[in-house]
Amino acid sequence: MPELPEVETVRTGLAPVMEGQVIAKAHVNRPDLRWPFPERMAERLTGARVERLRRRSKYILADLDRGETLLIHLGMSGRMTVSGDPLGRFVHDHPMPEKHDHVVFDMENGARITFNDTRRFGAMDLMPTLEADRHPLLAALGPEPLGNAFNEAYFTAAVKTRRTPVKAALLDQKLVAGLGNIYVCEALYRARIAPTRRADRIGLPRLAALVPIIRDVLGEAIAAGGSSLKDYRQADGELGYFQHSFDVYGREGQPCRTPGCGGTIRRTVQSGRSSFHCPQCQR
Ligand SMILES: [Zn+2]
């Protein structure tokens, strides 16, 4: 499932072919994904210029010159691909459509942007730009983990009253937006905090230390995604899925990488989701 760094990588890959460009034709090939598409979505998008492509949590937001904003959510299996010529050379050369290509944007610059989603947990919606923050999917979100509002004072105050496992607190989108299972496991490993540890029982200095660690973990993954974009044109044009090595996630049974630890990474299930941690150095 794409998490914040993957979504940010998709946004970064789409920006050069979408920002400032007109959607010459929007093709909407089915009535819904996870939810029904908004009414007349194809007509409302066709002819619109994308003024800005931004991200909130795991949602991509395209602000249009018509005063509307298009929300894109990749869900579990959503993939965005770019084909054709993103440099405005008007080469209309695209691969054959595939079965799950549900929404296609033909941009005026000749690029084709395809949203493919086999499991259809993704979503698209249109809303007035001025009301975007109040959209049901966005209204309750906490601060962005890479933004200024997510700081040590905010974070420690918000977490120290939580009687839940720290992992559950970090996954709570009202506390911080966009953190998912993988990067929470990675951050807790780096902070040497066990995922099952009750949030309110962690000392304030250790809690505060999580803030820069979360930023680093996400920032490093975004940087890895950014460098993966340099050669996306050589592959199939798919954005956002990149090789990234994790320190604990997916490493069950392998040796802990903390120098001198000697522990073995263990997988447990918390709230129905896999947790990976080192029982030796995470307390
Ligand atoms: Zn360890």
TrEMBL record:
* Cofactor comment: Binds 1 zinc ion per subunit.
Keyword Secreted listed? The answer is no
Q: Where is DNA annotated to bind?
A: 100, 119, 162
Top-level taxon in the UniProt lineage: Bacteria
Q: Where is the FPG-type domain?
A: 247-283
- Cofactor or coenzyme needed: Zn(2+)
Q: Which UniProt keywords apply?
A: DNA damage, DNA repair, DNA-binding, Glycosidase, Hydrolase, Lyase, Metal-binding, Multifunctional enzyme, Zinc, Zinc-finger
Q: Which CDD domains match?
A: BRcat_RBR, EcFpg-like_N
Q: Name one Pfam family in it.
A: zf-FPG_IleRS
Formamidopyrimidine-DNA glycosylase catalytic domain residues: 2-122
The EC number(s) this enzyme carries: 3.2.2.23, 4.2.99.18
Q: What are the BP-aspect GO terms?
A: base-excision repair
What are the recorded GO MF terms, alphabetically?
Answer: 8-oxo-7,8-dihydroguanine DNA N-glycosylase activity; class I DNA-(apurinic or apyrimidinic site) endonuclease activity; damaged DNA binding; zinc ion binding
Which residues of this protein are catalytic?
2 (schiff-base intermediate with dna), 3 (proton donor), 58 (proton donor), 273 (proton donor)
Protein family membership: Belongs to the FPG family.
- State how it assembles: Monomer.
Stated role? Involved in base excision repair of DNA damaged by oxidation or by mutagenic agents. Acts as DNA glycosylase that recognizes and removes damaged bases. Has a preference for oxidized purines, such as 7,8-dihydro-8-oxoguanine (8-oxoG). Has AP (apurinic/apyrimidinic) lyase activity and introduces nicks in the DNA strand. Cleaves the DNA backbone by beta-delta elimination to generate a single-strand break at the site of the removed base with both 3'- and 5'-phosphates.
The protein depicted here goes by the name Formamidopyrimidine-DNA glycosylase
Lineage at the top is: Bacteria, Pseudomonadati, Pseudomonadota, Alphaproteobacteria, Rhodobacterales
What is the primary gene name for this protein?
A: mutM
